[in-house]
Amino acid sequence: DTGVSQDPRHKITKRGQNVTFRCDPISEHNRLYWYRQTLGQGPEFLTYFQNEAQLEKSRLLSDRFSAERPKGSFSTLEIQRTEQGDSAMYLCASSPQGENSPLHFGNGTRLTVT
Amino acid sequence: AQSVTQLDSQVPVFEEAPVELRCNYSSSVSVYLFWYVQYPNQGLQLLLKYLSGSTLVKGINGFEAEFNKSQTSFHLRKPSVHISDTAEYFCAVTPTGGFKTIFGAGTRLFVKA
Fold first, then answer.
1. Among all residues of chain A, which has the CA nearest to that of B39?
2. Rounded to whole angstroms, how far apart are CA atoms A106 and A20?
3. pLDDT in tens, A38-79
4. Which of A54, A61, A100, A109 should be substituted to probe chain B, the one whose Cβ sees the most B Cβ atoms within 10 Å?
5. How many pairs of residues across A and B have Cβ atoms under 8 Å apart?
6. Tens-digit pLDDT profile for residues A9-30
């Protein structure tokens, strides 16, 4: 178990630029989640994959956000035309099959939009 | 839909004192309950979970939590805290048969010498 890996750890970008984050889940986990966390708040659900299928995307999520998980392995989260309000910690988590399986989190990618 | 309320945003406590972090949830369906801990500059990690059975569950680092269905609560306790317990603690629920875990806003525990 090498843990969930996220890259980069930090990203500073100017408003209007596009950014892409990567997540490598624990290899035997077929479920992958993206969450967003802002200061003083708990993680907020963004989207969920089971294998390569994206099964749910938060209705609060702007169309500027897109996520992929090709071949059911790593995942990418892209934000187009970033806004200052996108500044947050983006967390990736994975879990094995099973509705009561807890989430295994990466250390997150901190995005700062200037 | 589910929601989680953590009643205290910050809890300061002296070392070796007991502590309770409160969590209430709302759900129209049965849920699984979790507590996660986030140490400074680290990712969230599981502290303990309630799936079914005994309502008192024990987790890592001497923490325990009690599920109270009638009060829809899942409070976290530790009889004697250490400086190293300083962290942010998140209560979370997942609906049975579902996959989306909903988190509370977190409680920051400060343990003072």
1. A107
2. 16
3. 998 999 999 999 999 999 889 878 899 999 999 889 999 999
4. A100
5. 61
6. 999 999 999 999 999 999 989 9
